[in-house]
Amino acid sequence: MSTSTEQFADVSATTLLRFATAGSVDDGKSTLVGRLLHDSKSVLTDQLEAVEAASIQRGQDAPDLALLTDGLRAEREQGITIDVAYRYFATARRRFILADTPGHVQYTRNMVTGASTAELAVVLVDARNGVVEQTRRHAAVAALLRVPHVVLAVNKMDLVDYAEPVFAAIAEEFTTYASELGVPEITAIPISALAGDNVVEPSANMDWYGGPTVLEHLETVPVSHDLTACHARFPVQYVIRPQTAEHPDYRGYAGQIAAGAFRVGEEITVLPSGRTSTITAIDALGTGLGSNTAVDIAWAPQSVTIRLADDIDISRGDLLAPSGDAPATSQDVEATVCHVADQPLTVGQRVLLKHTTRTVKAIVKEIPSRLTLDDLSQHPNPGQLVANDIGRVRVRTAEPLALDAYADSRRTGSFLLIDPADGTTLAAGMAGESFATAKAVAAGDDEDGWDF
Hints:
- The chain is built from nine helices and 24 strands.
- By secondary structure, it is an alpha+beta fold.
- The relative contact order is 0.12.
């Protein structure tokens, strides 16, 4: 790999962390996020003044930091989080993109959205209630989405007198459960988001805890953004044919590189047709087709236009991959899905399957099993999946697709099932095996800790 590519990956790895928060209703997610923003001095003065005014109107003596993220009127009135709230903040050591996801069961689908691009998930637990069903559901979703780092934040420790045995019991139960799902790294931290214990500053009330605060862990957890190490994949989004006097023969294929790197002179295969050609030029965003020059190499997640030596019938939805590392195409897709729609997903149902930039007609041929969250057993042949269910499906598509296993690529191994009648998203799918096994992780089969 070129030096410039390595430098690009290294800079990203040391400066940016995408993470999501999750937990049951009233576990204190929004308060934790508000505390992080407030104590790390990432809140503007006018924002804090607005929160203070809103808190006074609600009859509260102190500012309700949860209002820093709960921006919808319905959220403030009900005191819950409904939508995914994205927040951007930074410290001297790292920049952060945070997705605060809802806790209600009916909004679990929003956690799938928030955690799909996260490198770390913070799962909150109320110290008084311990691990509940929604905690297990969030752990399962994080494992299914291959989030490489999970933090268990045992909140409201002030309401259990900061008792170490309470924290230890919850941490052991959750760690055992998440390990069985194959989560490679679990860090448990006792906190009080309301009082600020162990969020940004260490707690004087829990001298028995010697680990990092939440912010310290977020600042130091190792995160890899080197998508250049993944299988190179380029979904075609748009075909550029200006056919002008200045560029009469220009034919370029534009899109965003999903993973890996592409070089001029490299032989590629166009999928699903299987035709091959050679890359003659790569125009990076803002270059080529004008006054600027082309580049010799491009890597994920750059947006580029690729030109080929041969005039091949290529259109939106096709996938370019190195000929020596091209995925197999198939019309039979076996995957694990998180069902997110109110209406059930049933055997025999006709759907649309959207994979990268390609959308094809499909039919649900079989639903072999549904996951039981209590003991992680598989309920065979449920016949349908309802909202928030996690299950295995087999789908037959009208046209061949070039899917990678989700374990190899979160970007080209994922897809959506869509209702063709109204465009509603029915399920988020992950191709291939569902969860990594704890045995496989312990054996080092996932040496990179799912950082892909």
